[in-house]
Amino acid sequence: MHDFTLERHYAAAPEKVWARFTEPALMAQWFCPNPALDVACELDVRPGGAWRCAMGSYVVSGTYVEVDPTERLVFTWAWAHDDDPETTVSVTLTPDGDGTHLLLEHAETAPDAGDDGHRGGWVLNLDRLAAVL
C-alpha cells in the first residue's frame, strides 16, 4: 500500500476552500479530472455522514470520519466500479498569508492506483479547484 501527499497554495480564504469541499454544487464544479463529464455530488458533511459523487459513469463514495470546519476534513474513499479496498483521504487547510495552504493525504492506496490513479486524479482535481476559487 502507498500513501501520498499533495500540497497547494490557493489565493482564497480557508472558508472559501472549505466550501468547495463541503457544498455539493460547489464541489461538482471541480471534483473530476475530466471536465467533460457531468458531476453530481451528495454530501452529508458530519462525522459518520455519507458522501457520493458521480462523474459520468464513475461513482466514488465514502463516509466522513472527521469534520473540523474550515480546518480539517477526513473521509473514506471507495470506487463503486472495482473491488479495491477502501482508502482514507485527509484534507487540512491552514491560513497562509492572504490565502490557504492545502495539505491532502491519501492513505492506503494500491501501488498502481497511488502512483498513477489516485495521485494523478487528485493533481488534476486540485488544479481545477484553483481555477474555480
From TrEMBL:
CDD domains: SRPBCC_CalC_Aha1-like. Residues 12-133 form the Activator of Hsp90 ATPase homologue 1/2-like C-terminal domain. It holds the Pfam family AHSA1. Transmembrane segments: none annotated. It comes from the Bacteria. InterPro entries: ASHA1/2-like_C, START-like_dom_sf. Belongs to the AHA1 family. This is SRPBCC domain-containing protein. It comes from Nocardioides anomalus.
